[in-house]
Design brief:
By secondary structure, this protein is mainly alpha-helical. It is about 50% helix and about 10% strand. It has eight helices and six strands, in the order ααβααββαββαβαα. β2 and β3 form a beta hairpin. α1 crosses α5, α3 crosses α4 and α5 packs antiparallel against α7.
Length: about 230
């Protein structure tokens, strides 16, 4: 199972915060009825389906549908593709890490100035454009010590790397596809077993039939063979 905090981050990012509770309900399950989900979340079936469509845009769900015999409409059964969710979460965390690493480079190589009342924070170029004065309150801009900020960013990167390693170590099975059950063939009628004595008689009769010579045409004696 993917930790809840990671699921909230990635699902909220790609599909919206309102989808998170839905994902928490279906993760690890297969073929969950949208009607049951709508009942648990106290929302309409159409809204549940709309949430799944948003997840489907990122290939995070699979579904099967069955026709209700009584009501005549189709019911959708949804399955969350957990390996894809995990891969999406890993990519999401890695992108955030790259952005933070770029931010560290800018903070370590650049110079920044800040308003004493924290109205603005600008780099050297923008500070020069404003004559080192705050456009909001006209106070003098002062050099910003970003050591604490850089340390905080490094901690964020460390945490993201830990989460990525955790996700990669998770053993998640792909969703099981619904198996179609083939109709069983009709069993063949079993041959009747004969009693042992009857078997012996049949064997003896068959041997006699084999030994007996086939009946041929009777030889006829010609009249020439008789005495006159």
């Amino acid at each position: 199972m993917i930790p809840e905090n990671i699921l909230r981050d990635v699902i909220g990012e790609v599909a919206g915060d309102d989808v998170v509770e839905l994902v928490l309900l279906v993760q690890g399950k297969t073929n969950v009825s949208e009607f049951k989900l709508a009942e648990k979340l106290d929302i309409t079936v159409n809204r549940v389906r709309n949430m799944f469509y948003r997840l489907s845009e990122h290939n995070l769900v699979e579904f099967t549908r069955k026709k209700d015999a009584k009501k005549g409409w189709y019911v959708y059964f949804w399955t969350l593709d957990m390996p894809r969710v995990r891969d999406l979460a890993v990519n999401h965390k890695q992108r955030l890490t790259s952005k933070l690493e770029e931010r560290i480079v800018r903070e370590e190589t650049g110079k920044f100035f800040i308003c004493p009342d924290k109205h603005i924070r600008v780099n050297l170029e923008n500070a020069m454009e404003h004559n080192f004065r705050c456009p909001e309150c006209d106070a003098n801009l002062v050099a910003d010590d970003n050591t604490k900020l850089i340390n905080n960013i490094k901690k964020q990167i460390e945490k993201l790397n830990e989460e990525v390693n955790l996700l990669k170590e998770l053993k998640i099975k792909p969703p099981a596809t619904e198996k179609t059950v083939k109709p069983k063939a009709k069993p063949k009628k079993a041959a009747k077993k004969l009693p042992s004595k009857q078997k012996v008689k049949i064997k003896k009769i068959s041997k006699k039939i084999v030994k007996k010579k086939p009946a041929g045409k009777m030889k006829q004696k010609g009249k020439s063979g008789r005495k006159k």
